[in-house]
Amino acid sequence: MSEPSRSQAHVHREPSDAATGPVGTRAPGVRRTAAGVSELVQAALPLIAEWLPTQRWYAGKGRPIAALTPVVGTPLQVGDPALLHLLLRVEHGGATAGPGDVYQLLLGIRSEQPASVGPMAVLGRLAGGTYDGATLYDAVHDPELTGRLLEHLATGDRFGSLSFRRTPGPGLPGNLPGRASTAEQSNSSVIYDTAFILKLFRRISPGTNPDLELSLALSRAGSTRIPRVAAWFECRLERSEPATLGLLQRYLADAEDGWELALDQVARLKGDPSPGNFAIEAHRLGRATAEVHRVLARTMPTARLDRARTAELAGAMADRLDSAVTAVPGLMRYRPALRAAFQQLTAAHLDGLQVQRIHGDLHLGQAMRTPQGWVLLDFEGEPAKPLAERRLPQPALRDVAAMLRSFDYAAAHLLAGAPGQDPELAQLAAAWAARNRAAYCAGYTAGGGLDPAGTPELMRALEIDKAVYEVVYEARHRPSWLPIPLAAINRLADTV
Ligand SMILES: Nc1ncnc2c1ncn2[C@@H]1O[C@H](COP(=O)(O)OP(=O)(O)O)[C@@H](O)[C@H]1O
Ligand SMILES: O=P(O)(O)O[C@H]1O[C@H](CO)[C@@H](O[C@H]2O[C@H](CO)[C@@H](O)[C@H](O)[C@H]2O)[C@H](O)[C@H]1O
């Protein structure tokens, strides 16, 4: 490979141990600092501090940044453009701030800003030193640089603590340009032609990300209900087990997103109140969910509920409710009823019920309808939960309850902007949700899953728990959607 041309915008490539070692000076015990990388990172930090809070995937919104500490910086391309992979710890002030969060950044540095990089992806111009005047930007939007990442995945490269890994099977083309996905998401994805999609996890925790862990388990079991895993990359973070940084999967080019399909059906209710055929799809989706659950139960650890575990399950729900009440005080009035619903779990004869690994954040946007049937995506679990919690075995019906919430969301979307103003439409929307929720549950049972109707207290508690999560999620990310889960809470509280 020819040496890239150098310019004022380059990143120095140092001998490998130095270039890919930890950078910065704040962490104790750091190895030798790579001067070139360190200089670049120091110049970039003020721009990163301004830009981070504007990103959808940034979890620290509303909390001032107390410190930004580079953890590992790895130059993946030198010259102009340069590509710097950076893991960065963000700390917040205050007594309860904790150790902070580590984020993954893929930074491009060029003397000229590329046309594909829009204003939201530009961090600014670097000032001073070797990089003076160069544009610093989110390289996810630069096809040349994301193409570079695919090359590393294809060759299974290693750069210091960064390892690129391939699954056995057909080789990967290393030369496809990547375009940034425009999907609304918690991480960032790059689509390579119509062949692959690379998800770059943004908030990084030590350990295997459940998305990789479960997708690999399902792939290895031969399941066609997920896009085949082609490669991933990871980093050993502060001497703990490797943290998953990115996941490359087959791109489902001929698939339709379940959320879009559902919205399309719901929108038609306005002009044509006939039922439509989404219930058939909902039934098939229920079957697909059951199939995935069966494989996960067969290939990954399971356990059984007993009194103590059930009490723990109910207690965790009550704790999540209490934190949610603090974040969204509007929930306070429902607290007694919701707590009572969780309490009733302990008397619900759940002993012996199997718990297992599950999807953890299932909704219509995570289901793609392909010509071969429904395929499920994104087994990461709820991004706000700590990784260890997301990996705990759960009642499989948790996923069912989450999907039921999604039908409710799709129906409520129809009423957005006109709440309570058109009772006829509200009735149609409610009937649509009820029909599809029932079809999904029937499909789930027909596919070998547990009948949700058999454990009504558990289903109600799981649905409440999800709606509570959604209240916090919407308050944080999409405040205008907050009425959707709040209406569900209101309705569910009335049934206790
Ligand atoms: N393999 C795939 N094929 C086609 N589209 C995909 C694929 N994986 C993800 N997508 C699209 O990208 C969106 C976001 O993906 P997801 O894995 O849910 O990311 P995140 O965890 O960041 O929210 C999905 O809703 C879907 O529209
Ligand atoms: O897909 P993500 O992993 O990013 O999940 C998060 O965002 C979802 C929204 O994009 C959010 O889902 C909620 O909104 C959906 C409609 O946009 C709805 O279908 C879901 O039922 C509802 O929970 C999800 O909760 C959040 O974790």
Q: What is the topological layout?
A:
Blueprint: H1 16-19, H2 35-51, E1 65-77, E2 82-92, E3 101-110, E4 122-125, E5 135-138, H3 143-155, E6 158-159, E7 162-166, E8 178-180, E9 188-192, E10 196-200, E11 203-204, H4 210-220, E12 229-236, E13 242-250, E14 256-257, H5 258-268, H6 278-299, E15 302-304, H7 307-327, H8 335-343, E16 354-356, E17 367-370, E18 373-376, H9 387-390, E19 394-395, H10 397-415, H11 423-446, H12 456-477, H13 483-494
Antiparallel strand pairs: 1-2, 2-3, 3-5, 3-11, 4-5, 6-7, 7-12, 8-9, 9-10, 10-13, 12-13, 14-17, 15-16, 16-19, 17-18
Bound molecules: adenosine-5'-diphosphate and the ligand O=P(O)(O)O[C@H]1O[C@H](CO)[C@@H](O[C@H]2O[C@H](CO)[C@@H](O)[C@H](O)[C@H]2O)[C@H](O)[C@H]1O.
Record keyword descriptors for this entry.
seven-stranded antiparallel β-sheet; disordered N terminus; kinase; 13 helices; nucleotide-binding; alpha+beta; 496 residues; binds adenosine-5'-diphosphate; Kinase-like_dom_sf
Please characterize this protein's 3D structure:
The protein is of the alpha+beta class and 496 residues long. It has helices at 16-19, 35-51, 143-155, 210-220, 258-268, 278-299, 307-327, 335-343, 387-390, 397-415, 423-446, 456-477, 483-494; strands at 65-77, 82-92, 101-110, 122-125, 135-138, 158-159, 162-166, 178-180, 188-192, 196-200, 203-204, 229-236, 242-250, 256-257, 302-304, 354-356, 367-370, 373-376, 394-395. It has a seven-stranded antiparallel β-sheet with strand order 6-7-12-13-10-9-8. Strands 1, 2, 3, 4, 5 and 11 form a six-stranded antiparallel β-sheet that branches. The chain is globular. Residues 1-33 have low confidence and may be disordered. Bound molecules: adenosine-5'-diphosphate and ligand LMANGFYV. The ligand O=P(O)(O)O[C@H]1O[C@H](CO)[C@@H](O[C@H]2O[C@H](CO)[C@@H](O)[C@H](O)[C@H]2O)[C@H](O)[C@H]1O binds at residues 184-186, 259, 361, 363-366, 378, 382-383, 405-406, 409, 470, 473.
